[in-house]
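If your schedule permits, I should be very grateful for your opinion on a structural question. The matter concerns a single protein, recorded as an amino acid sequence and a row of backbone structure tokens. Could you please explain, in whatever detail you think fit, how the structure tokens follow from the sequence? I set the record out below, with my sincere thanks for your time.

——
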Amino acid sequence: MEAFQKGFEMKADYIEIDVQMTKDRELVVIHDTTVDRTINGTGKVGELTLEEIRQLDASSWFSEAFAGERVPTFEEVLAEFHGKVGILIELKAPELYPGVEEKIADALVERNMTTPIL
């Protein structure tokens, strides 16, 4: 969330988010399909529950100044940045998460985010 906030503060036109789905079918924003490289855990995103992922530190690998940052949910990112900055949504490895497209579309429809803002 800190990186997205920084993009907003720097007046970026868009933030780009990678969306995946947890074992319990929750949408999370994370680049890698595992938590091994940039998060202090191990395992595949799709094999961990949201609760398990939320217990991990997602940013201290980058800098101790960001220690304690958690993997955000798709809903949290939408709630924080919708209307402030464009949000470019990438479905990361959708073949690993059957139904992820529909869950994302449903979340966008629920927030009335189906029409581009010009």
Summary: The chain has a mean pLDDT of 91. The chain has four helices and three strands.
